[in-house]
């Protein structure tokens, strides 16, 4: 046979005469549902355009319309491991656009084939086409909360007022985890506090007169942080924590149009914390305020709270630490 004859020319996917058939290549393409469809990495687009075949088991995969718009033919198929290996025969490259589950049945089947040692396996590559950005799991939390609000008999009936007590409880549990130094508990309690924020924001969406969403909440705090940190996002400078705090309070007073440094301090907080907060505001404003010359337990506690604040001690935390020690002493006596 003449080497230049049509019979001697290999067809696409067929090895040249006298050479071993190349096993080919399988590319498992994974994407994140938290990133807008079509926003794929450049290596992913290269692999898709260069592939001999592109497969996807899910005909409703959100990436498919964008792949086809880019001129990529996608076959809706869910091949078994051996079928996929056969499709790569002759050095062909097959890209599998993974579903949300990541194709575990297919990858397990390929692993079993490779383990037999009897199959000339194609090159296997896991190619992430899009990655989660930091904070991406917050989108999952918002979606889960949406569904719970719509379908849960208890959650669907909750109001801001009804949930208020849980916010206080979760905040105290968070503080306890911090003071105990329990990292696992800290992570869990932070999640519980975050849930309260997302839950209230979800309820707020349903308000007929003044609705707002979790995006409005996040947007508001982002704008506030940028505005109150001109030494980070602007031209001002701050070299000490005290300078940062002074600017924060000054900016906050202008924003709120307050006439007194006491405005905005919640009077419903625990007494020691309230006294310390008032003392902190007075000290920051360089106000020398003498304590009322009245005797009594309340004023004694006030004096202690002011003293603690001036020494950089959180009186609430100090009292809780003392109370825990007292609790331990009680238990030892009981035992």
Automatic annotation (TrEMBL):
Top-level EC class as recorded in UniProt = hydrolase
Keywords assigned by UniProt, alphabetized? Hydrolase
- Please indicate which superkingdom the organism of origin belongs to: Bacteria
Membrane-crossing residue ranges in chain numbering? none
Protein name according to UniProt: XTP/dITP diphosphohydrolase
Q: Residue ranges of the NTP pyrophosphohydrolase MazG-like domain? A: 158-233
Q: Which Pfam families match?
A: MazG (PF03819)
Its BP terms in the Gene Ontology are: dATP catabolic process; dGTP catabolic process; dTTP catabolic process; dUTP catabolic process; response to stress; TTP catabolic process; UTP catabolic process
Q: What is the lineage of its organism?
A: Bacteria, Bacillati, Actinomycetota, Actinomycetes, Kitasatosporales
Which CDD domains does the record match to this protein? Answer: NTP-PPase_MazG_Nterm
């Amino acid at each position: 046979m003449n080497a230049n004859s049509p019979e001697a020319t290999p067809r696409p996917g067929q090895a040249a005469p006298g050479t071993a058939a190349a096993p080919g290549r399988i590319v498992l393409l994974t994407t994140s549902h938290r990133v807008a469809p079509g926003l794929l990495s450049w290596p992913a687009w290269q692999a898709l355009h260069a592939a001999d075949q592109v497969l996807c088991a899910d005909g409703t995969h959100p990436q498919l319309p964008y792949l086809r718009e880019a001129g990529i033919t996608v076959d809706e198929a869910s091949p078994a491991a051996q079928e996929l290996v056969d499709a790569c025969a002759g050095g062909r490259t097959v890209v599998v656009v993974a579903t949300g589950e990541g194709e575990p049945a297919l990858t397990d089947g390929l692993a079993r084939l490779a383990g037999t040692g009897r199959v000339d396996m194609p090159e296997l590559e896991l190619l992430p086409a899009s990655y989660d950005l930091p904070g991406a799991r917050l989108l999952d939390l918002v979606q889960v909360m949406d569904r719970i609000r719509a379908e849960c008999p208890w959650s669907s009936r909750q109001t801001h007022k009804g949930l208020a007590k849980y916010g206080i409880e979760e905040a105290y549990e968070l503080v306890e985890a911090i003071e105990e130094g329990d990292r696992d508990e800290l992570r869990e309690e932070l999640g519980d506090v975050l849930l309260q924020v997302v839950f209230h924001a979800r309820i707020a969406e349903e308000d007929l007169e003044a609705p707002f969403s979790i995006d409005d909440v996040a947007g508001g705090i982002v704008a506030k942080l940028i505005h109150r940190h001109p030494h980070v996002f602007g031209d001002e400078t701050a070299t000490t924590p005290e300078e940062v705090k002074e600017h924060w309070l000054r900016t906050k007073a202008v924003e709120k149009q307050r006439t007194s440094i006491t405005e905005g301090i919640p009077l419903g907080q625990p007494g020691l914390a309230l006294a310390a907060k008032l003392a902190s505001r007075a000290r920051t404003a360089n106000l020398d305020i003498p304590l009322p010359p009245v005797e009594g337990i309340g004023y004694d506690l006030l004096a202690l709270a002011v003293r603690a604040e001036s020494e950089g001690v959180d009186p609430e935390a100090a009292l809780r630490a003392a109370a825990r020690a007292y609790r331990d002493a009680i238990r030892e006596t009981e035992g």
